[in-house]
Amino acid sequence: MTIAAGPAGVGRAKQKGPKGRSTAASIALHGTLAVASLIAVFPVVWLLLTSIKPRNAWDSATVTLFDHPNLGNYAFVLSQTKFLRWLVNTLIVAGATTVIGVLLAASTGYAVSRFRFPGFRSVMWMLLITQMFPVAILIVPLYNLMAGLGLINTFPGLMIAYLTTAVPFCAWMLKGYFDTIPVQIDEAGQVDGLTPFGTFWRLVLPLAKPGLAVAAFYSFITAWAEVAYATTFMTGDESYTLAVGMQSFVSEYRAEWGYMTASAVLIAIPAAVVFLLVQRHLVTGLTAGATKS
Amino acid sequence: MAAQAVDGTVAGGGPARDQAALHRRPGGQGPVRRFIGRHWYAWALTAPVVIVTLVLVGYPLVRGVYLSLTDATEANVGRTIGMNVIPSTYEFVGLKNYTAALADPEFLATLGWTVLWTAVCVTLHYGLGLGLAILLNRPLRFRSFYRVLLVLPWAVPAFVSAFIWRYIFSAKYGVLNAMLNAAGLPAVAWLDDPAVAKISVIVVNVWLGVPFMMLAVLGGLQAIPGELYEAASMDGATPWQRFRYITLPGLRPVASTVVLLGTIWTFNQFAVIFLVTGGGPGTSTQILVTNAYRLAFTGIRDYAGSATWGLLILLILSAMTVIYRRALRRTGEAW
Q: What are the start and end residues of each CATH 1.10.3720.10 domain in chain A?
């Protein structure tokens, strides 16, 4: 068979041996991938199909692929619910978390990438262990802390809660990225008379922009999809984030699957587009530290 | 460009170099000052994160440890109602909460299910991710197309996916039961039967987690030099031998990181359980994290019990990580 797709695959093909594959093997290969793709895609397609059905279409025993396709659910979600408000809230909280988290984390990531100092291992452990903190252990004390400071149901309160995960995570990821930037760059900067901080700020950070972007993206999607803190801290529906607000569409008493699916599509499409554009870098960013160290 | 800069200045750059050295060692004499001089810069760089972490994680952690040693519930913590300030009346009870939790069948059952859930999910994540990555790593028509489709579950925010699956599993209106009906089979109580609900949540989490593993393994596969395979083929290695002795060892660095991360994420996977089944039916699908949350925020809020569960979770994960890192260090990882 000829190789049409995947320019990256061509080079590998030659290394891996004979290109020729029996027809049976080809069918098995494509069959497996097709089934896997179908399973991967089906729920998302079903979501799309449901969202363009009439509001109560889900409420019937007969299930059809198409049923009077229309955008009524979208119109309702956008005009009659607080969806847009929740979207703005989510963007504010996730955006602020990301900016502050990455700024704080960058210098630490750099330090643990470049220097072996007393306390180095403690810092590494701290970064690793804080990532595994179950929400259950922090949520009650944080809730009390926020309540004491009057930050329950406010954006700063939720943002601070998210920083507990975003900061160690970003620092961990950025360490991996800084590891891939040659130390010679730093040395060159020092030789040129830059201060140590100048080296970091004017030489290394600009080179690390892709890494910073990936860390930023990661902390953004983590904050944007967080459920537990948001459900607990945000008590008024004016300040809900999307993850909380959407729960109200499918409460125990009344499930509005039409509205739920429409808002899910509205959230998922921009998220998925951005995601598919950057996903290659996301995995490299996460595992860079591993392959290098 | 960087190399040029080095070459250009090293030759005539004596003074600049001394200055750089000065920055690193402001003191220069005395062992203590030299020690501080050598490391102050690294400490200064790490200070912001260390301080933020100590305040935002350290303080709540200490507070959580304290709460776990008391009998604090919603009924006896201090609060302010209007003008009246009600003081706290909870007491220090030592390790009673821990002994109680460890003897509590509910805790042990939840722990067992959480371990099973984590083991099954991570095994399937890695196994399926590895399988798909190997398929995708071959020369193949429509390769990029398959890749985009297979990555899709990761691209949709997890809470959105949780809602989708809840709808798909819905007993009366769900598409799964509709398909079974159409095929003349009886409906299945996907989320209402304890045993089936467990399988359902695993399905959701596996669906969510495979794409990440697949991409990570794919990256790892592409880092294995092709010559190794060629040499092995020359020596007459079977495909299985090549997989066993080249692919698997070659994937180790990537696998060790993603399996550790995956285990932690799955162990603490709140959104899937909370949004798909809410821990039900009954408490059959509660994992440790969701149940600790339930203790803290439903019924009479049991702050002490929740903190105890949380700390036990942290201890389990920390112990696991220490063992894991130790195993890795033995095979030559840096720290």
A: 77-292
